[in-house]
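Sequence, please.
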């Protein structure tokens, strides 16, 4: 096992061993997170601050760390205690195998959304290679960038209403050398710059949480993640889906597909809206937790099976 500069291997009796820090995470955060989550946060911090893997921890846990690193770790614990998500503290997260910059202006990408990206990649690779893709409500740029990385021949446009979120997405596209066209667009308004184009794939993970679901949400989401990215308007919770479907009637190319991430509670309303707008070929797909999380709408004849699909 290699030795690290920031580990003083001889000072086993010193106060702050890795093991002690692990223990401190568990002690200080146990009222906020379940133990399993605290462990995974601890290992994220270990990797980020000390460049240590889980395995290396096992071999070095009784060694004390470089005292210079302690203040940073203490600050992280204090911010975690205030419910701040670890991704915002470290300004970094992982999505589809890529490392993304994040801050409080952009939603932290979720695992379900990785599944959405995987379905699109599979769909494009099966059908065609050179596609025009539109990501509506791009946030950190996670979907757009992951798609461009895996489908380099595609042309990807990504839009968001939030200037600050777009700054995050643009920063990520520069960091990852990913050529994407970003535009500030309010999808609820008509006559924005997108109305001149056609797309083969339209993907969106729009705000879909209902205000009635707030009571079940963790403080780290409610107090830190952007409200505009999370919540659907009470008076018309499917408005984003409605407007995107209307837009897609004209701007989705023949044989193109819409990929939506959805709130399972809104599934029927979205399907009814799509049907009423003439979209008849729909599939609902469950996520890895068995929740009806995605709706895929095809502008072609014949339903193909995509993932764990349920025909509608
Ligand atoms: C649930 S977040 C999704 C972010 C990212 N695509 C992801 O999957 O992690 C929804 C995004 O939609 C954006 N948004 C909200 N209202 C919008 C509107 N009227 N037009 C365009 N984007 C909007 C928010 O700023 C936010 O970035």
């Amino acid at each position: 096992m290699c030795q690290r500069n920031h580990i003083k291997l001889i000072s086993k009796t010193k106060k702050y061993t890795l093991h002690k820090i692990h223990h401190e995470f568990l002690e200080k955060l146990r009222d906020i997170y379940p133990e399993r989550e605290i462990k995974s946060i601890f290992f994220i911090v270990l990797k980020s601050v000390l460049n240590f893997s889980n395995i290396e921890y096992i071999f070095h846990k009784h060694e004390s760390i470089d005292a210079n690193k302690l203040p940073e770790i203490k600050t992280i614990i204090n911010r975690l205690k205030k419910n701040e998500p670890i991704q915002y503290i470290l300004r970094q997260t992982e999505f589809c195998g890529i490392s993304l910059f994040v801050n409080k202006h952009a939603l932290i990408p979720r695992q379900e959304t990785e599944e959405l990206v995987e379905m699109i990649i599979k769909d494009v690779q099966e059908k065609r290679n050179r596609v025009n893709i539109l990501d509506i409500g791009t946030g950190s740029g996670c979907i757009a960038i992951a798609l461009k990385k895996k489908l380099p021949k595609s042309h990807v446009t990504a839009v968001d209403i939030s200037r600050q979120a777009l700054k995050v997405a643009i920063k990520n596209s520069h960091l990852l050398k990913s050529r994407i066209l970003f535009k500030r667009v309010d999808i609820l308004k008509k006559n924005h710059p997108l109305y001149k184009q056609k797309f083969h794939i339209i993907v969106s993970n729009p705000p879909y949480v209902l205000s009635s679901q707030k009571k079940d949400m963790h403080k780290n989401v409610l107090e830190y993640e952007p409200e505009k990215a999370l919540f659907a308007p009470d008076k018309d919770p499917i408005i984003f889906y409605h407007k995107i479907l209307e837009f897609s009637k004209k701007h989705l190319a023949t044989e193109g597909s819409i990929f939506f991430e959805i709130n399972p509670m809104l599934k029927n309303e979205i399907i009814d809206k799509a049907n009423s707008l003439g979209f008849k070929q729909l599939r609902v797909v469950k996520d890895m937790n068995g929740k009806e999380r995605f709706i895929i709408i095809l502008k072609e004849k014949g339903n193909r099976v995509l993932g764990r699909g349920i025909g509608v």
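The chain has twelve helices and twelve strands.
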